[in-house]
Design goal:
By secondary structure, the protein is α/β, with parallel strands linked by helices. 36% of the residues lie in helices and 16% in strands. It is built from 12 helices and 17 strands. The chain has a 7-stranded mixed sheet with strand order 2-10-9-6-5-3-4, with helices on both faces. The chain has a 3-stranded antiparallel sheet with strand order 8-7-14, with no helix packed on it. A 3-stranded antiparallel sheet has the order 13-15-17. Helix 1 runs antiparallel to helix 7 and helix 2 packs parallel to helix 7. It is globular. The relative contact order is 0.17. The structure holds pyridoxal-5'-phosphate.
């Protein structure tokens, strides 16, 4: 058994339960194309996420890419550079131009006070990210979108099961994308979904993920192939049964980290707000070297020596990627730049042992 500790580890259901699901797939002999598991899982998700509508995809990225296509956006999309590559690639692969807005230092989401100054007559949408499951300033973003007639599409890849003031996260904006990648809080091996309330979008998304085929003789859109298959849906059905248990276990790990790291000067932990139901998806920590004594990268080095592998998540900023850096200047988003250079995501998964959390914190605090 490999006892290296990685930043995350997929939760798996009891194997017998997955086998039971697979047997049914054998009996039906339907493997994909919105079969019975797909239909059942979609309905279960709609209930769990408390949303009007949901559309399943083979992964979160294609879900996002096709949603931008479905809304027929044009020109510029305001987003954050402090995100996973997928967010920005989805914009660019639609022939659209990302415009990077800085983030706020409190919860690392897009700084809603800085959005309006970036709006031009080419702007068609805002694509904010609920990074680490932290919720964006959804109210202010909605007001801005309304004032300027913009669509709002959330990258909610990290926010499965999160609620704000009792309202489920998938109900904000025009649509929200969830990722069900193996490394996320909830997974279908690979997978993703879009939640939305606009009925016109339902058919469009359904057709787009199946080559734009509306009927056997009518291909209306330039679609692609992004259907979730039956084996993925079956994994989703199994994992959904255990999601509360899994989030509770994550909360225990989260609280243990807090016990050790809260209130240490030079360290900022990701505090959960009282009006938020969290999924405890990540445990990001920023290290201010001048105050704490060690830099983020020195901490990484110490942890790696003990075969513990946290992630410098998200470093580098998307605007510093090889494929984008010529067009952007990350000095224009100084908060995102500082956070990206000083943040570390510590290991957090349902089965992470508390004594490992103790060990990780001990290694960190030795470097004070
Ligand atoms: C994981 C992730 C995605 C992409 O999801 P996949 O299911 O891996 O395609 C997009 N955005 C963010 C912020 C993510 O973390």
């Amino acid at each position: 058994m490999d006892d290296k500790i990685y930043v995350t580890k997929p939760s798996l259901p009891p194997i017998e339960e997955y086998i039971e699901q697979i047997k049914e797939i054998w009996e039906e002999a339907i493997l994909t194309n919105m079969g019975p598991k797909h239909v059942a899982f979609e309905n279960q998700l709609k209930k769990y996420l408390n949303v009007e509508d949901v559309s399943l995809f083979t992964n979160g990225h294609m879900a996002l890419e096709m949603t931008l296509q479905a809304f027929e956006l044009s020109g510029e999309i305001i987003t954050t550079p402090f995100t996973f590559a997928s967010t920005v690639h989805a914009i660019v692969r639609n022939g659209l131009t990302p415009v990077f807005c800085d983030i706020n230092i409190e919860n690392f989401t897009i700084d809603a006070n800085k959005i309006e100054e970036l709006i031009t007559d080419k702007t068609s949408a805002i694509l904010p990210v609920h990074v680490y499951g932290n919720i964006c300033d959804v109210e202010k973003i909605q007001q801005i979108a309304k004032r300027h007639n913009l669509k709002v599409i959330y990258d909610a890849a990290h926010a499965f099961g999160v609620k704000l003031n009792g309202r489920d996260i998938g109900n904000f904006g025009d649509a929200s994308m969830f990722s069900f990648h193996a490394t996320k809080v909830f997974h279908t091996i690979e997978g993703g979904a879009i939640t939305f309330s606009n009925k016109d979008i339902a058919d469009k998304l359904y057709n787009l993920k199946n080559f734009g085929i509306k009927s056997p003789t009518n291909v209306e859109e330039v679609g692609a192939n992004a259907k979730m298959n039956e084996f993925q849906a079956a994994m989703g059905i199994c994992n959904l049964k255990y999601i509360s248990e899994s989030i509770n276990k994550r909360e225990r790990v989260y609280n243990r980290y807090l016990e050790h790291l809260r209130g240490i000067s030079g360290i900022k932990v990701n505090e959960k707000k009282d009006n938020i139901i969290s999924n405890y998806s990540y445990f990001p920590v920023t290290f201010n070297k001048e105050v704490f004594g060690s830099s983020r990268d020195e901490i990484v080095y110490e942890l790696n020596k003990e075969e513990i592998y946290p992630r410098r998540y998200f470093y580098p900023l998307c605007s510093d990627f090889e494929c984008y850096k010529a067009k952007y200047d990350s000095n224009k988003t100084p908060t995102a730049q500082w956070v990206s250079n000083n943040i570390l995501t510590l290991p957090l998964y349902a089965d992470l042992k508390l004594n490992i959390v103790d060990k990780i914190c001990e290694i960190i605090l030795k470097k004070k």
